[in-house]
Amino acid sequence: MQLGKVIGHATSTIKHKSFEGFRFALVQLLSPSKAPDGDAVIAVDTYQAGVGQTVVLNLDGRAARDVIKDDKSPIRYFVIALVDD
Fold this sequence. Notes:
Blueprint: E1 2-10, E2 24-30, E3 36-44, E4 54-58, H1 61-68, E5 78-82
Antiparallel strand pairs: 1-2, 1-4, 2-3, 4-5
């Protein structure tokens, strides 16, 4: 698990078929002290997180494929919780 801050959302007209119907958040990874830590990632967001909101990401690709119910999906990151600030 990894903390992150939503910095935007991504849309795509062409995408892997397993991504249809899902919302994507652009998430800046954070260190335990909530400082930016590495590059931003795109994560499936089933919680409808808003820009500026802190989230918990799961970085386990297998678990992500279970969430979207597609064993062949190239997904890696997904939001598993919203953090109350």
